[in-house]
Every structure is written in C-alpha cells, then in structure tokens.
Amino acid sequence: MALQGASKGKQHIRSVQRILARPEHYLNQLQQILIEERFVNGRYNIFSIVERGKERLIHSLPFYPDRIVHHAVVQVCGPIRIR
Q1: What is the average pLDDT score of the chain?
Q2: Which pTM does this prediction carry?
Q3: Both ends of the chain: CA-CA distance in Å?
Q4: What would the DSSP string read from start to end of 13-70?
Q5: At 50, phi and psi to the nearest 5?
Q6: Mean pLDDT confidence for 45-62
Q7: Which of 2, 20, 47, 63 would give a disulfide with 72, using CB separation of 3.0 to 4.6 Å?
Q8: Mean pLDDT to the nearest integer, 57-80
Q9: What is the H or E stretch that residue 5 is in?
Q10: What is the C-alpha to C-alpha distance for residues 18 and 16, in angstroms, rounded to an integer?
Q11: Beta-carbon neighbour count of residue 82 at 10 Å?
C-alpha cells in the first residue's frame, strides 16, 4: 500500500520504475533496514517552481526509501491523528 501511494503519479520516473519492476526485493530490503533501525532520512533536494505567478520552494526526498517509509507512517498514524 505504501509503495502504491508513494509511486502514484510518478510511474514515468526512471528510479520509480526500477523499484516497481522488483517490489519484493526493494521492500524486503527496506524491511530489513527498518528492523535493524538503520533508516535515516535522505537529503532533501530543494528547488523552486513558479506556479500561477507565485514562487514556491519545494523540498523533495528520494523516492526510495524515504517516500515509501513516509507513506507507511502516514497510513498508520493518519487515522489516529484524525480522531
């Protein structure tokens, strides 16, 4: 579920395609990283875009493993926070 949420609208990106081609391999690898408590956020890629005449500063994390982990956390904690 987290992989699908993180990849939504990003299937055209090469790095996402690589993960989606072998999801079991990458998800097992990610599971091991989490079990061993070795997960550390990657570096943010910071850039700006102009949208509807307004400049926006974007902070983007790598797709794997960061976005997948963040989607998993939100799936678990999101319903708790909504209450």
Answers
A1: 94
A2: 0.84
A3: 22
A4: SHHHHHHHHSHHHHHHHHHHHHHTT-------EEEEEEETTEEEEEEE--IIIIIHHH
A5: -110, 120
A6: 96
A7: 2
A8: 93
A9: helix 2-7
A10: 5
A11: 6
Tokens 């079991």 belong to residue? 24
Q: In the chain, what's the furthest Cα-to-Cα distance?
A: 46
Amino acid at site 70: H
pLDDT for 79: 78
Structure tokens at 76: 């678990």
Asked if pLDDT for residue 82 goes beyond 90, the answer is no
Residues 6+ apart with CB under 8 A from 10: 16, 63
Could you tell me which of 66, 58, 19, 59 has the C-alpha nearest to residue 42?
66
Closest CA to 2 of 57, 56, 77, 55: 77
Task: Provide the b/e sequence for 39-53 (b: ≥16 CB within 10 Å).
Answer: eeeeeeeeeeeeeee
